[in-house]
Predict the structure.
Amino acid sequence: MKVAVAGGTGMVGNHVVAKLRDTGHQPVILARSHGVDLTTGVGLGEKLAGCDALIDVANIVTMRRKTAVNFFSRTTSNLIEAARLNKIQHMVTLSIVGSDEVDFGYYFGKRTQESLLRSAGIPWTLLRATQFFEFPEPLLNNRSPVIMMPRMLCRPVAAQDVAEQLVRLVTRTPSGRARDLSGPEQLDMVDMARRIARAQGRHRLVVPVSLPGEVGRAMSGGGLLPHGDYAQGQRTFSDYLGTLGRPVTTDR
């Protein structure tokens, strides 16, 4: 299959592209560095021409509702329109477990994305995954010796496990909402951050912070945990830490 990957240069996208190649498929990367602007649609139609399917893992890092909704509205609408014009047979989109339950700014963007996908009029599959093992790292990259880390109860999953599941789904019949995907163990985000810092040789004091109101209570109380029947990744957080056993060169 020839499979387009929106956000194919990102953390999950890199794994998706590698897995597609390893399994004999031809990935087509949709990203600015490859001549495509997902927010405007420039270059998108040309890249999608001849593709059989599309995996959407495009992302933006923001906590602001307006920014997230604007990004996912534009990119998803552009992808759907181009997919329709190019007769894409299957569109697989990655979302987040709990995004419909926790009123966090970024999650409103994911809700918009999911809504657009459901009404797209093309064959689709939606995969919700829990937070990635890498989730605390952007905050740890701050040079400050004191890091404020939100209290979050989760079942974090390996980005590689997510990518492999997306590739499996795109080669199957479109199924609408797929089973959620989580990691094999329940962890606290503050503890994860501390363990990552130790594994990387960073000297950081990680201070727990509760987000205000209902959002904070939902995040620390299980609102981001999967419910019912869900799939489980095989890689553990300890496996991930084992890949980080080196000092971070930006810490001096």
Q: What stands out?
A: The chain is about 35% helix and 20% strand. Residues 2-241 form a domain with the Rossmann fold fold (CATH 3.40.50.720).
